[in-house]
Amino acid sequence: xRRFCLILCLILAAGVSVKAAGQDETWSLEKxxxxxxxxxxxxxxxxxxxxxxxxxxxxxxxxRLPSVNAGISQNFNWSMSTATAGSGLTGTNGSGYSAxxxxxxxxxxxxxxxxxxxxxDIQAGVYSLETTKESISLSILNAFLQVLYAExxxxxxxxxIESTNSQLNLAGERLALQVISTADYAQVKSQLASExxxxxxxxxxxxxxxVNLMQLMELPVTSDFNIEHPNMGESLNxxxxxxxxxxxxTALAIKPQVKGASVNKQIASLDEKIAKAxxxxxxxxxxxxxxxxxxxxxxxxxxxxxxxxRPAAGFSLSIPIYQKKQAKTSVAVAKLGYRxxxxxxxxxxxxxxxxIEQACQDVTSAQIEYEASLENFSAxxxxxxxxxxxxxxxxxxxxxYLVSKTSLIVAESQVLQSKFNLIxxxxxxxxYMGVPLSL
Length: 439
Known about the structure:
alpha+beta; elongated; disordered N terminus
């Protein structure tokens, strides 16, 4: 019994240590993106689709090879016979063997174009997969920054509570000495309660942000999920002057959605060539060898097969004459498909250009907003420090003190918001320049 209890304790201890190890794990942005890309259903389905395209490409290439078939038949026949001993049914049996092969010699390059199209389908699938991965990575980046922002909000709320709590203790001492009124004390106490509510809301927003990030990662929601806190650096403002033309030209050369649209246009052009093949003759070559055996013959089985060998070879030419507009319609539809692919490519490029224009403007605006919020926070912080000192000395009442404190809270919140807005703007611009997402 003691041995059993000892083993049980060791198992429980191991479980606790494993859980503790999981709690200490922190997730960097790169790790979050890597995990999300492995777990995302759309990514995995795209990978399966690409595997199917590879199989279809192999099948298309095999169309160049001859087709070979073999056949075996066994027949039983009965007939009425009139012999001297009487009449009745007599039976015979026979077997036949054949092998044939055929290969297409000419079909206006239809097979060649089908092979090219299958290879392009593989490329298009790869670019589509990369586009999906980029979209997911951007979503993870946004969610990750939202968690960082929410954590900063929680920290600021706690600092404000500590400051207000100290002022409330001071206000309590002054109230006991009848230096301030009960109304002044109540206002400070009310401010503390308001800041505690703000903290509760901030903690709630943090929890929601973490859940959102974990769900985007396809990670089961857990309470011990923690992210890595990168060092943003003191000089956050890089004072960039993004040029739309330069960024756009760079993005055109590297972005998978643009390459995918170009490949889809090539696929559509091959559709037209494949459809035109229906106007032209198809030349095929074939070869056949066969033999048979019959029980009615007197020769042995092997001799019948050897003597009955019948090899044959030939060519066939299929010439289309009238196809009820099938070929004409197919060609016309293929031309429309090519025009549609051209429009899709143009739309993809236009959308990319618009996104880059917005990204460049966002960087410029975010830099200005960040500097303005820093300047406002610095001035507000200085004013708030004076108000704290005056309130401590009893020079100003609680109303003036709380007005100053509220202005500081608002200014600090604006700095925090503009800070993460600037970081996100930089990362989006880097994304279009081909820089890997990282913090």
